[in-house]
Design a protein that fits this description.
Elements: E1 7-8, E2 11-12, H1 76-79, E3 82-86, E4 96-101, H2 114-118, H3 120-127, E5 137-141, E6 149-154, H4 163-183, E7 188-192, H5 203-221, E8 227-232, H6 235-248, H7 253-262, H8 289-299, H9 308-315, H10 325-328, H11 334-350, H12 354-357, H13 370-385, H14 390-394, E9 398-403, E10 409-414, H15 425-439, E11 447-451
Parallel strand pairs: 3-8, 4-6, 4-7, 7-8, 10-11
Antiparallel strand pairs: 1-2, 5-6, 9-10
Helix pairs in contact: 4-5, 5-6, 13-15
């Protein structure tokens, strides 16, 4: 039924002889007349098309068709643009074919046989693209292929723990390929199975994502795409697509009704991506303006004109009704904020005060007089001269770097030698006072330059 260039034992093959296949040789989904596998029932393993569906639970089958609305109604216009082809996509004469590859777009991880069929020019152009991110798509020329362009995309790696992320990334792969197709003014595309064995994505869940993403995209952009070919290269993939296509592209009312009970509970949003309720942005509707205006007018009576702050508060109180209490609860009380700031300032004052030790005094209070500065500096200089600070001098931490525009000395601290865990910080500051006094006075340093600072 699915015609190809070559057949083996009555079954379609991948047409490995390199023959060109046109779209009129591939039947449309509307034109096919195969018996869907779901007619055998979900537990009939004797069906030749039977595959266990990990996404469809027994609870989902209880929906039935009595009164339930179909999430994918019959659309003959869309179905007429869908094809299913058993073979390599690069044998098809279409505008673009899809290549599943890795982030480097190299030949080793591309679809088997694609680079051989396209010629050496494809590898050179792929190398010039600079790679491609997972879920994205890039286009190149098709070179020796019957198609006009090749769209390269990178599928995700699969892990059960990150199932939702992988599912949405795979959905974005298909959507990106279709977006690139439309942006380039092309209208027909052949899409292979983007998931690969090396990345461990289960075949059937991936087929669900691929088919529903294409369906949602065509619902919005069907006027811009004339043909979309699902290409499979193995018999298992072919049978999976033959079984799942009627769920998302039903061809009559009977298939639509059966699909209601067979579809998984989560078929994604309007783009086919998985919906996560916890990540939805919840917007609270605004209250009725008429009631707000009435309340505002009744409470603005007898307001003193000269009290501008109170007037502003009373006239704008109704704005609180626009704010979500859950959001307002995240805002700290101003008094609580000030109290925390005072507590932090008190803790800082109880700690080691570098500014006061260096002669700047308490920077949070009034500045010291010249006499107080001289007295403070003299005390610390006397203490520094009474101590043996040779171990700090041997560490080669401090150097003088000249003076600034006002004649104040500039000291350079080599941060790579400044090991805070192995250094008494108070002794180091006293060493700074001592070295500074040897060179010049007063102590005030214009700039401390730190280079390669490590704690």
């Amino acid at each position: 039924m699915y015609r190809s260039v070559a057949t083996r034992g009555g079954m379609p093959t991948d047409s490995g002889d390199g023959g060109v296949v046109t779209l009129d040789q591939v039947p449309r989904w509307n034109d096919t007349d195969q018996k869907p596998s779901y007619l055998y029932g979900p537990g009939d393993s004797s069906s030749p098309f039977f595959f266990s569906d990990p996404l469809t639970s027994s609870s989902g089958a209880g929906l039935g068709s009595d009164g339930a609305a179909s999430r994918f109604p019959v659309d003959h216009d869309i179905n007429g643009r869908i094809y299913l082809w058993r073979g390599n996509p690069w044998n098809l004469e279409v505008d673009a074919v899809v290549n599943s590859t890795n982030e480097s777009l190299d030949e080793a991880h591309s679809s088997p046989g694609l680079h051989t069929a396209a010629g050496p020019g494809l590898a050179e152009e792929c190398a010039a693209l600079g790679g491609c991110r997972t879920g994205m798509a890039k286009m190149t020329n098709a070179y020796d292929l019957p198609a006009r362009k090749i769209i390269h995309t990178v599928g995700p790696k699969y892990a059960v723990k990150y199932h939702t992320a992988a599912e949405n990334a795979l959905s974005h792969c298909y959507r990106s390929c279709l977006e690139v197709l439309i942006e380039s003014g092309l209208q027909s595309i052949a899409m292979e199975c983007i998931y690969t064995e090396t990345k461990g994505y289960p075949r059937e869940p991936a087929a669900h994502v691929a088919i529903r993403t294409v369906r949602r995209f065509l619902e919005k952009q069907k006027d811009k795409i004339t043909a979309l070919v699902f290409c499979t290269t193995t018999s298992s993939d072919t049978e999976i697509y033959k079984r799942l296509l009627p769920l998302y592209f039903p061809r009559d009312k009977h298939e639509e009704e059966v699909a209601i009970s067979k579809l998984p509970s989560d078929v994604g949003d309007e783009n086919g991506e998985t919906i996560i309720d916890e990540r939805k942005i919840r917007i609270k509707p605004l209250p009725v303006l008429s009631s707000i205006a009435t309340n505002a007018s009744t409470t603005s009576v007898d307001i003193p004109i000269n009290d501008s702050a109170l007037t502003l508060r009373r006239s704008s109180f109704h704005l609180d009704t626009y704010l979500d209490p859950a959001f307002m609860s995240l805002m700290k009380d101003p008094d609580q904020r000030r109290k925390e700031q005072w507590e932090k300032a008190a803790q800082a004052q109880n700690g080691f005060d570098f500014a006061r030790l260096l002669g700047f005094g308490d920077l949070s209070g009034p500045p010291l007089s010249a006499a107080e500065e001289y007295s403070l500096h003299s005390r610390y200089l006397a203490k520094a001269n009474s101590l043996n600070l040779s171990e700090i001098d041997e560490m080669k931490i401090l150097y003088r770097g000249g003076v600034d525009s006002e004649g104040r000395p500039v000291m350079v601290i080599v941060g790579a030698h400044f090991l805070l865990r192995c250094l008494d910080l108070e002794r180091f500051v006293l060493y700074v006072v001592k070295v500074q006094f040897i060179k010049s006075f007063p102590l005030f340093m214009s700039v401390l330059l730190f280079t390669g600072f490590y704690l």
